């Protein structure tokens, strides 16, 4: 008796299974949902992107968006490469600059006809454009400079906006340094010697970029670098090192932002608007009331903030036309529609790289600074994406600058190595 | 092969297939790619030995090579001396020897990455706090130059792995028959003589195993290197494995990295096998 019951149950289960799988087949066959897979490198915005995708799916029921976020430049590229070579390539993926654009050239569709590309602010797509064709759409613009502690500057009696030249900055630094104990800080700056990109990417871009007008593409294609104003850069490194919280060579990003600046132990740090969430997570009150940003004073570029894009969206050329269209539709919606714009500013906290955002208020003090400088056209372009994707950056620039910073190598030798290394790399690329 | 039955091959095949899929085939593929200009996606031409020629002039690789060799020599000696010392200590009959075995083995149960981060904190914060209170200048600024970076790596590795080596030595030490030692005692051998003439030859197989483990581990180390120094400052503490990974993923030079990996494999295999071959000869049977 019992055995019979089991047999029946088994049959029932089997029948159910068959119907279910048939139903599943029927389901996927009848609906014409277009699947858009996204692989992107801005891992801190993962949650926000997923939220936006859900919202988009609600109003566009025929599209199914799947987002994967991979963090940090070192891990993203291998994942993208693996997915492409295993036949599982994403419909939309992110590019970090000219080197990436070149590497994935066979996969990037021309986006110059999209609404978003037409609305992109001047200069924001130059790094990923060749022969008048645009292969990437900027995520956003970001800016960096000296992020300062308003309270400390006020108590020291210094107006940060008046620090428009190196000499004025140096005088202010000395003044703050002399009242260190009274102001309750451990150092004027907090220079993270462990994070070689602070110097090699952000700081050097200002001085090296001048001869290329801050154009990453020009730098990327250049056979050699002159680096004529390297002495100005040396001055700026020396100043930051001398008046930093010590020991410089033991400090990393967390030491600079979390432990020193956010806790009021440094008057200013060389950083960008992306650190705001970190400061907020340490002390939200401090972040709200006490944080501002001024440009790093560079001779000839006074009062200008370096503003640029670190990531671009690319659409996979090898996907079907329907999939490519769904992908560009989504990007157009995100950056040019009313609902999308709101998400860009309020959900993603992005400073827009596109026209049509007039009158919108940025969600925090640092992005507001970047937005205002770019609105007033008081910006210099980022040159460093022109070398960050090349081996010159990790193999030559970073170790050499770190060697100088730790006192192991003279500045002249450092500059010489940088120039020689670039020439060598570029001569290899050509053949 | 005559005496190998069908079941022998039946049991062996799944393992062989798995090994072939994840080890042999990728290795052959890698060997091939090392002769091309592969960028991780595609290659345009076969370049012969060009990658191997480049690698010989690659200062970072040569630097990483000598750094790794020095690291291996120091850690192999220290690990075996300390491991054997600890094993001798805890095989003495005294209260708490079992407890000590657990304590010495414990560091080995923590992952290398986490260990690196913990020790980074100890080296930078703990050491400098100690150095300031005790006025010992050499305790300050650890991990900021290649010398302290090197010794930092050595300390972490030795601290982590000596417990593991100890366990292997313990197993062999306990296998030494008591009567041999007793006979030696009656013959009037001193403690030192008993150790050098009896104990040490008797645990020679353990020595072979431990040498192999410490050698290959020393060459292949990556996680501690990554979390403790990340190759810095100025790439001076970059070891071979890390140099290969960085060449591939940071500099996007996959074919050169493949060539480096092939050379790396040959060096590690040759040294490890030579060592096993040489030490096997010295092993004695009772």
Automatic annotation (TrEMBL), chain A:
Key word Transport present: yes
Top-level lineage group: Bacteria
Signal peptide positions (record): 1-23
Signal as UniProt keyword: yes
Keywords linked to the UniProt accession: Signal, Transport
GO BP term, pick one: transmembrane transport
Protein family according to the UniProt entry: Belongs to the bacterial solute-binding protein 1 family.
Protein name per Swiss-Prot or TrEMBL: Extracellular solute-binding protein
Species: Pediococcus stilesii
UniProtKB/TrEMBL annotation, chain B:
Keyword list, A-Z: Cell membrane, Membrane, Transmembrane, Transmembrane helix, Transport
Topological category with respect to the lipid bilayer: Multi-pass membrane protein
The keyword Cell membrane appears for this protein: yes
Cross-referenced InterPro entries: ABC_transporter_permease, MetI-like, MetI-like_sf
Gene Ontology CC annotations of this record: plasma membrane
SUPFAM superfamilies: MetI-like (SSF161098)
Compartments, as annotated in UniProt: Cell membrane
Domain annotation ABC transmembrane type-1: ranges: 65-275
Pfam families assigned: BPD_transp_1
Any one GO BP annotation for this protein: transmembrane transport
Parts of the chain that traverse the membrane: 7-28, 64-89, 110-130, 150-172, 198-219, 261-278
Family to which the UniProt record says this protein belongs: Belongs to the binding-protein-dependent transport system permease family.
Descriptive protein name: Sugar ABC transporter permease
Organism in which the protein naturally occurs: Pediococcus stilesii
Upper taxonomic lineage: Bacteria, Bacillati, Bacillota, Bacilli, Lactobacillales
